[in-house]
Design goal:
Blueprint (H helix, E strand, L loop, with lengths): L1 H18 L5 H9 L1 H5 L2 H17 L3
Helix pairs in contact: 1-2, 1-4
């Protein structure tokens, strides 16, 4: 679950950069298909935080 949280955190950073037109043509394509996430990358970041919390909750040590 920590891997999922890390991937979502990276995607959140990419959507933030794409929303601010910082990564060129890749950002244009990302915002074409995920315009909601380009406008509010905090949705993806919230998912990353929830995945990390869930991973910590269910981990058995």
């Amino acid at each position: 679950m920590y891997v999922v949280a890390a991937v979502l955190a990276i995607l959140s950073a990419l959507f933030y950069a794409a929303g601010n037109q910082e990564i060129g043509t890749l950002g244009v394509e990302m915002c074409r298909y995920g315009s909601t996430f380009c406008r509010s990358p905090t949705y993806v970041l919230a998912g990353a935080i929830l995945a990390a919390l869930w991973g910590a909750f269910v981990s058995v040590r």
